[in-house]
Amino acid sequence: MGEGFSEVIHVPTRLRICSILAEVGEAEFGVLRDALDLSDSVLSKHVKVLEQAGFVTVRKGSVNGRTRTWVALNKIGQKAFKAHIEELRKLAAAGDLLEP
């Protein structure tokens, strides 16, 4: 694989998370969970992996007295996601060259 390929991002659920965050910038945890049709625990696990890789920023705050969590694709994550998508495009284009 090329240098832009990310094993962390390539996992389908994390690829979907990054795709959504690349579009919206930041999403509330519950909104992201519902959009992806995931359980809290599954989303939390994948967000943690992305956070440990340095790709997302997680912040907590209070809305109407209730604690909320927001997840954002940070600059490092944006760069990694774009590079990963570009690498996938290259792979797809190479596959097209093999077609008769």
From TrEMBL:
Pfam families in the cross-refs: HTH_34 (PF13601)
SUPFAM superfamilies reported for this sequence: Winged helix' DNA-binding domain
Annotated InterPro entries: ArsR-like_HTH, HTH_ArsR_DNA-bd_dom, WH-like_DNA-bd_sf, WH_DNA-bd_dom, WH_DNA-bd_sf
Domain HTH arsR-type per the UniProt entry, residue ranges: 4-94
CDD domains: HTH_ARSR
GO MF, one example: DNA-binding transcription factor activity
Protein name as catalogued: Helix-turn-helix domain-containing protein
Organism: Arthrobacter yangruifuii
